[in-house]
Amino acid sequence: MLTHCHTRSVIQVASTTHATPILPLLWKNLTPLVRSPLHFLTSRTTRLLFTVYFGTYTTANTLDSIYEHLNSKPYTFLSHTTVKILGVSTVSTALTVYKDSRLTQMFGASTKPQPVPLPSYALFTARDVLTIYGCFVLPSLLAQRLDDVPSSFKQRLLLDTPESRARVSQLILPMMIQFISTPIHLYALDLYNRQQGGLKVWDRLARVNRDLPAAVPTRMMRILPAFGVGGVLNIEVRAAMLRRFGFGTGKVPAG
């Protein structure tokens, strides 16, 4: 539910004509959760976010299971194939672009919702492909790389088991990818919020640069529970379910 508040707050900051502190907006958007949790949990925004995460994780788990079955891999193997990238990106991007187009219209600068420009859709798509790559592909690749680190360093960094390397990679990379995806996200929002003609690229980049210091940590906080902690829990829950139904050992692999 924090994801809900972070997303709304970033959109509202990007829609203002002057620099706006994001913490008061975060608190304002958290207030409905405290005052009326049931209404908050059943709101349109929450339903949109749930649809995105449910569709994304279901697609990733399904493609992993198909790959494992066809290639005689352990049923806890996390693939990083082109098919997985394309499949998860397609589903997640379609759902997320739809979600963001609705949220941008709901919380953007215009009092009357306007059509989302095609360039904004394109930038939302690019942002989501990067996010999926950073959340579902890079963690397993990084975990493999960490296996080559000298044993002394792995012990000091608590990376001496495949499980720990997988968890650390899954927690770190979704946040790090925000340094690349957040500017793209802000530029897409600005294309919607300021659709008047005559604005040059440098004008828009100045607005992006204005909001970047607040938006990056905010989106990191948003992505951490969604695809960082959520990714670790997904691995653990999937492994437990596979154990429950008698598939493999249930150990979390490095990749």
Can you put this structure into words, describing what you see?
The protein has 255 residues and is mainly alpha-helical. It has one domain (2-244). Helices cover 77% and strands 0% of the residues. The protein contains 10 helices and no strands. Helix 6 packs antiparallel against helix 9 (178-193), helix 8 packs antiparallel against helix 10 and helix 9 (178-193) crosses helix 10. The two termini are 30 Å apart.
Which helices and strands appear, and what pairs or packs with what?
Blueprint: H1 2-15, H2 22-35, H3 37-41, H4 44-70, H5 82-107, H6 118-146, H7 151-156, H8 162-176, H9 178-193, H10 201-244
Fraction of residues in helix: over 70%
Q: Output the structural class.
A: mainly alpha
**Number of spatially distinct domains:** 1
Distance between the termini: 30 Å
| Biggest sheet descriptor | none
Low-confidence stretches: 1-6, 249-255
The proportion of strand residues reads under 5%
- C-alpha geometry: globular
Tally the beta strands.
0
Report the oligomer.
Answer: single chain
How many helices? The count is 10
Radius of gyration: 20 Å
Mean pLDDT: 79
Order of helices and strands: HHHHHHHHHH
